[in-house]
Amino acid sequence: MKKVFAKAYLYLLLAFLYAPLVFIAVFSFTESRVLGNWTGFSTKLYTNLFTGGTSGGSSLLAAIENTLIIALISAALATLLGTVAAIGIFNLKGRKRAGMQFLNNIPMINPDIITGVSLFLLFVFLGISQGYVTVVLAHITFCTPYVVLSVMPKLAQMNPNIYEAALDLGATPSQALRKVLIPELRPGMISGFILAFTMSLDDFAVTFFTRGTIGLETLSTYIYADARKGGLTPELRPLMTIIFLIVLILLVVVNIRRERMNKNK
Amino acid sequence: MIKRSYWSLPYLIFMVVFVVLPLILIVIYAFQDGSGHFTLSNIGRFFTDSDSLQTFALSIEVAIENTLICVLLGYPAAWILANRKFNSSAVTVMLFIMPMWINALMRTLATAELFNMLGFTLGKGTLLFGMVYDYIPFMVYPIYNTLLKMDNSYAEAAEDLGATPWKVFWKVTVPLSLPGVMSGVLMVFMPTVSTFAISEFLTNNKIKLFGTIIQENINSSMWNYGAALAFIMLLIIGITSLFGDNKETQAEGGLI
To answer: How much is the ipTM here?
Structure first.
């Protein structure tokens, strides 16, 4: 009986969480501009989305492209910077280490709007014209701490002797780095990269303040501008559905694999 | 390992330029007038402007209500998820966490559209409902994590010593899970105060939250006043983060 209640509660909450997404997914298969108005099954919105035949021209496709490029570049650079930083911080001691860890926490505690406004003021102050580069720099700023946090545990788990053994056996420091250290850190770097990538994809506020006035749009700023205009581009519906499905499939696959691995142990 | 401590230098320089300096700039701009002279008038303006004060009070109120509802709804969910008797599937847990991975603007927009279709008038009610919808995963996840890691022998000992299940729950489980609740609160409260797009979507621009007035001032080139408002928000963050354990805000790091 208790179990039934518990399960019912979970499913009720899940239904509440997923209702809007399911609703968007259902109405991605009809042509109507207004949501909730079913005008018969159609995949026209999907073809529109991929051929750039959206009501706003190809700007939606451009926004998707910008979002992906910015996320890839920021995540890659954040992974590089964060990994180097993690190795450095790991080798610091005492107060210096605590200081660096404190610094690393600041961007994570700051709400997006503070990060956005503060970087906006920085670029204004330095007289840098805002656009692609400033957005990427801003994304690196809030992504790197997560990379550092993903890599640090791998450094702690690593046996420091194997690195020294490589040196004793005649490896140059750079060889030891490439052949011993990096392979050990790789899982942390990969999860750091994925985190950074998704943080960048999700970001709205920071991009909003650092993109300048050159008309650079990412998916988030596109949606924001679109919603402010009132008439939501109907092609956003298939796009949301696709993103929802990709995330769902990815997470289910990762989790089922993990569950299977745990059972085999 | 040989000396690689200097490897932290590039990051230190980067952080000073892109994190520390920008925060200092918020403070500087907050205490300057348009021509760069020191002034207290920006801060003073906030405390004398009833509109700003009202917005501020409303933001705190909405954030407290949202956080409370998230705890009340999220705690039982996290508890059921972490309890082996009721749930043994990692997929259910994942379904609760998944919304965190989808663009918040998209999810909010979907919610707002659903409200529209159902014929609800957008206002405070829909704002709260949508906020809960947006932030509840951030509450469930840290609580679930602490409950999962909790040492069961305390609860078992209490049971052996004759405590009723109800007592075990209130006297053992809840106190031990408070760090998780605290980090959940941190992950919900501040973002609610500072959000701007979400509140605009959910109320059709009828209700402004603190984040919105910061955004409006910055965008209409009122940088000094915008910076002063951001400075006030920084103070609140400083105060709230004193209550929380910083390590717990890193919960997101373990998601993959």
So the answer is: 0.85
